[in-house]
Specification:
mainly beta, 22-stranded antiparallel barrel, five-stranded mixed sheet, 48 strands, globular
């Protein structure tokens, strides 16, 4: 009997000691490694990581030795205890030499999502900084304004790109008219753990927009205390983090001023007072091995003051050169204030099941005020005699006035679930979202050409254009999705299949959207260095607010804004077919990617683009299509440093109902506002031989010109801008603890690293065009005057990590 009692006591003690250890296995670039073996040595307990590199094991002793291994990587062994938290394991690549061949482990892409190494972003020479600096160099992405974080993906508008942080969709200001006003991106680079980007064909779990998804995950500190500070000519940042038992906290502060940059904006003479500040915090608390609560918060304040004085711009051809000169009076003052908060509760009832409940709140207050007058002169410059100038082309005065405000309040409650099995992963989600928008607009423009007000009236003093609004809108959205990913082996190779459905209902226009999506990845057994994939789906561009604004003239001739409650979401069928070739060159891993894609879009809401402002017509009135292809070469041109070059070609056209030429004939298919034809992007990292501390980063961007037309004219693509060309280069000298002997000195011993960067922005000093200003000439014609972006400038940055 005593043996039974001893056995029972032993069993109970083992059950009492049982606990669960979980974690994620990635490579050196933080890419997940699927099907890696995770085992406890000396036991029969083991498992394989899922497609996201995650695992979970039940442990029946206080301590154990864990082994993590995968073909192509070096095995890692380490001791774990019941006090070990969530494990983040990085495997090092292992070269296997067979006679004259070298086989290296490489992660194979199984969908349209690209994982971007966060470490590459630290020293990228950009004006805006942050994650967007490298996103702009991805396949299908075009960005032709260095002052803006916005980008166009495969012919889409800036509003067609979704951004998520920790599974929460991020909103941005609505009243921004120019890139100078944008300020800081939401994403704080000092807090980022992983970055994933898809330029189309993405799964059902993300995206009620048509073009792209940027998915960011913030990190949890792994040290008792850590932090960083940095400063440059463009601003400053600071971050602090700590881990105390089951509690982690991470705080980030950023300050940005664009005054230094904007002094070199085109040919303007102006005073800029810009202050962009934000604070973010990410807190997590592991209540138990199964429960965790997290909070993500953000407060941002953007102040922009602009006092123009004068402008002088020369443009045109050698034989037809014009000079545009303006003298200004007045100023513009803009203010943007936003609050964001997310409280999430995560529950893991089983090692392969995750359930989350997220409560989100977003509040923004935007105010734009300006009173700016000007007197301009348009002149012809006579060839070979620049001092002989004819002033007969145009002389006029104008005055612009605005008092605009937009308040946005969004609250939502979301449930997310995930079940991971050996051969498949099931995900689902439900969201209830309440929205309230208050819009008050009062703006007008007066023009006086050669002493006569335009338009000319004898009984009043009219304005050239005006717009008024006083609108309150309240609405509710219900969003849900379900998705299943299956993976298996056949005699032909490995197959990964993902299928899902997304639903979106909006009470404002009583519209229900149903979006089926599917993708397949195939890795043939006979061609192990190749991967093939395709995705197809129905994608919608669910309107938010700007798309609803329709205008009409009241009885007094004033232009008023009303909301179109019959508007429908633009919709598209999309197909993406891709192939990846994995190979070695110079004994280093490389990947060549090919992608072709097509979109058919209907229920288009036409729009025009002025700088970064998108002006919608507020009606569904057209169809369109986009076809194109991208290629990308990715690899270690320099050992240990990733570089890539991408080239894209596209054809984007739209046929807008009611657009006719002067003879009343339909114009048919025209270029879309963001149809640039071609795009070339390069990101290159280099290191000096025998100088580990010195690194050089180069970014290049070339893109075709954009199409534009006269304001209000049906011929939207009558003119074409010059192509966009820009090169930024930066050199960074860094000292790292454990590598450089100087860091062992007492004054530097507590620091993890110190770096000093010198950047040359717009290396070749190209005069790129952001938009055109249309002015009236003496013969009552219209003349487009180019608005140029920044010229060559330099930046110096110091960063300290501790």
């Amino acid at each position: 009997m005593k043996y039974y009692i001893a056995a029972i006591v032993t069993l109970i003690s083992q059950m009492a000691m049982a606990w669960t250890i979980s974690g994620r296995v990635t490579d050196k670039e933080n890419f997940p490694i699927s099907d890696a073996s995770v085992a406890l040595l000396g036991t029969t307990v083991g498992t394989l990581t899922d497609v996201d590199g995650r695992f979970s094991l039940d442990v029946k002793s206080d301590t154990a030795i864990m082994s993590v291994s995968m073909l192509g990587y070096t095995e890692e062994r380490f001791k774990i205890t019941n006090k070990s938290g969530y494990l983040r394991i990085r495997l090092k690549e292992d070269d296997i030499v067979l006679e004259d061949f070298t086989v290296e482990g490489q992660r194979k892409q199984s969908n349209t999502v690209v994982l971007i190494d966060v470490s590459n972003m630290r020293n990228v020479p950009t004006v805006t900084g942050g994650v967007e600096g490298l996103v702009k160099s991805q396949t299908g992405v075009v960005s032709t304004n260095e002052l803006s974080q916005q980008y166009s993906v495969r012919g889409g508008s800036y509003d067609e790109n979704s951004v998520y942080v920790n599974g929460i969709e991020i909103f941005r200001p609505q009243l921004v008219r120019s890139a100078q006003q944008e300020g800081l991106s939401f994403v704080n680079l000092d807090m980022v753990e992983s970055v994933e980007f898809s330029s189309g064909g993405f799964a059902s779990e993300v995206g009620d927009k048509m073009s792209s998804v940027l998915d960011i995950r913030y990190r949890k500190p792994e040290r008792k205390f850590e932090g960083s500070v940095s400063g440059s000519f463009l601003g400053a940042t600071a971050s602090l983090g700590s881990k105390t038992g089951k509690f982690t906290q991470l705080h980030g502060f950023r300050y940005k001023s664009s005054a230094y940059l904007l002094k070199n904006l085109g040919n303007d003479t102006a005073d800029y007072d810009t202050r962009f500040i934000d604070y973010q915090t990410y807190l997590t608390w592991e209540l138990s091995p199964k429960w965790e609560v997290a909070f993500l918060g953000n407060i941002a304040r953007n102040n922009y003051k602009y006092v123009p004085h004068a402008r002088e711009t020369s443009f045109g051809s050698v034989l037809d050169t014009k000079k545009f000169k303006v003298y200004y009076d007045g100023n513009e003052v803009d203010d943007y204030l936003s609050y964001f908060g997310n409280l999430s509760l995560n529950f893991k009832p089983r090692k392969n099941v995750t359930l989350s409940l997220l409560g989100n709140g977003y509040l923004s207050e935007e105010n734009v005020t300006y009173d700016i007058g000007g007197s301009y002169f348009l002149s012809d410059i006579v060839p070979d005699n620049v001092t002989n100038i004819d002033h007969s082309k145009g002389t006029a005065n104008y005055f612009e006035h605005a008092r605009n405000s937009l308040n946005t309040n969004i609250v939502s409650l979301t449930h997310l679930g995930e079940i991971r099995k050996k051969k498949n992963t099931i995900k689902w989600g439900l969201t209830l979202q309440k929205e309230k928008v208050t819009d008050k607009t009062e703006e007008w423009e007066m023009r006086d050409s050669s002493g006569y007000s335009q338009p000319l009236h004898s009984d009043c003093f009219p304005v050239y254009s005006n717009q008024y609004s006083d609108i309150d809108i309240k609405s509710t959205r219900f969003i849900s999705f379900m998705q299943n990913t299956l993976q298996g082996e056949t005699d032909k190779g490995r197959v990964i299949f993902t299928a899902g459905m997304r639903f979106n209902y909006w009470s404002f226009n009583d519209e229900l959207l149903v979006s089926p999506r599917a993708s397949v990845a195939f890795f043939p057994e006979k061609c192990p260095n190749w991967g093939f994939r395709w995705s197809v789906g129905r994608y919608f561009q669910s309107p938010f607010y700007k798309e609803l604004r329709d205008t009409f003239k009241n009885a007094n001739g004033d232009v008023e804004v009303r909301l179109n409650d019959t508007i429908k979401s633009p919709r598209s069928w999309q197909l993406v077919i891709g192939a990846d070739k994995y190979f070695t060159m110079w004994k280093r891993p490389f990947k060549f990617t090919y992608e072709i894609y097509g979109k058919y879009i209907d229920r288009i809401i036409p729009y025009t683009v002025d700088n970064v402002e998108i002006i919608y017509e507020g009606k569904n009135k057209g169809v369109g299509y986009v076809v194109g292809g991208d290629v990308k070469l990715f690899g270690e041109f320099v050992p240990g440093s990733d570089s890539w070059i991408s080239v894209g070609l596209l054809r984007a056209r739209e046929d807008i109902d009611g657009d006719v030429d002067r003879n009343g004939n339909p114009l048919g298919y025209m270029y879309t506002p963001n149809s640039r034809g071609y795009n070339v992007s390069l990101f290159f990292q280099d290191k000096f031989p025998n100088i580990d501390q010195l690194e050089v980063n180069l970014t290049l961007s070339f893109a075709g010109g954009f199409r534009y037309g006269k304001p209000g004219a049906a011929e939207r693509d009558l003119h074409k801008s010059e192509s966009y060309s820009r090169a930024d280069i930066g050199a960074t000298y860094s000292l790292i603890q454990g590598r450089d002997k100087v860091m062992s000195k007492p004054v530097l011993r507590r620091l993890r690293g110190v770096s000093l960067s010198f950047d040359c922005l717009n290396l070749f000093d190209y005069n790129n065009v952001s938009s055109y200003t249309w002015i009236t000439t003496a013969d009552n014609g219209k003349c487009p005057v180019p608005n140029y972006l920044t010229g060559r400038q330099f930046n110096l940055k110091l960063r300290v990590d501790f």
